[in-house]
Input
Amino acid sequence: MNKFLLQAEDCAVMVIDIQEKLFAVMDERFRSLLIKNSRILVETAQALDMPIVVTEQYPKGMGGTILEIGEHIRGIQRYEKLYFSCYRDPAIRDRTDSLARKTVIVAGMETHVCVFQTVIDLLMAGYRVVIAGDAVSSRRELDRKEAIIEMRSAGALIYSTEMIAFMLLEKAGTTQFKRLAPFFK
Output
């Protein structure tokens, strides 16, 4: 396996805490980008039969997954958590491990809290981690940037959503490519 290339049969997608109350306080410049790119990752995963793990940090207080993402993940279990790192929650860790995928593609928020801690734990557990750099957000841009720098330093790959999607699709002309093509206009 090339350490830089992605293959759908080896990947799972983790969507971390894109929730109503938390989303409302994210850096405004990135909200629409976060929605668009998270949707592309979810749609790509679904088109290529890749498993998706969706988490929600204390949904009783933070609200559920925002509608713009939630409507695209109907039927996918949402894992409630209190740990900042998804991988420290036993149910999420068991689900992730049971997928038997070596690569986890991550989107969500906040980059410097739950995303960062999850990525570090996944790396320590032996996963290859790819962060969709344009599908993660924090309340402050400096926190987002610093977390991305540190995750890369720890061994995570930072790719754009389109890099991820096109790498997983591999070629044009397929049913999956035609299904996803409208997202890239």
Observations:
- The chain has one domain: 8-184.
- Strands lie at 11-16, 52-57, 78-81, 103-109, 128-137, 157-159.
- The first strand starts at residue 11 and ends at 16.
